[in-house]
Amino acid sequence: MHKNHQDLRLLPVHFKKVAFGIFILSVLFIVLTISKVIPVDKDIVKTISKTGFLVSLLLLALTKNKIEDELTSRIRLKAFSSSFVFGVAYVIVVPFVSLLFKDGFLSDKGVTEVLIAMFLFYFIIFYSMLKNR
Amino acid sequence: MKNTIKIERAIKNMTQESLAIEIGVSRQTINSIEKNRYIPSIVLALKISKVFEKSVNEIFELEEED
After folding, report:
1. For a designed S-S bond to B25, which of B19, B29, B56, B62 qualifies (C-beta 3.0 to 4.6 A apart)?
2. How high is the ipTM of this complex?
3. Which residues of chain B lie closer than 8 angstroms to A4, CB-CB?
4. Which position has the higher pLDDT, A114 or A100?
């Protein structure tokens, strides 16, 4: 199929392997530091693992499927827009929820957590729509 | 918008899979078009019409609500 200007500029399929590799490395890094095989500061571990998760999720979101046609692109765009709305709603709602819990477990949500939640929402929407197309 | 892809496929003795391969999309996309869940782009409609050697208007038809 020839490319046209409406095509999304996505990464080739093999980037999925790269994304999963980074994800596994991030998990492995956390496991090794928790088990004290690698003695690293807790904040450094947190930053590196968060970055690793974000990069892997971004790569997964921007990588083509095996068969990427115009319906897949349309579903992808719908999922992207839904996850954006979800992200905004999440940022609006979470402070009120944390008020209910009196600065409980939901009070310290940073940018990374919001982005990870957005990516997870994107994957749920994308794959459920892809299944029911 | 309705279409006659299913009928044209039957005439040509083609499966959804073989049509999908010929025009470079997934089988599910052909299924969605046949069930009127997805309206294809002009490029895809032209490719489908080329496979069945008919004009786009003969395969795709507007309905009252369109």
Report:
1. B29
2. 0.84
3. 43
4. A114
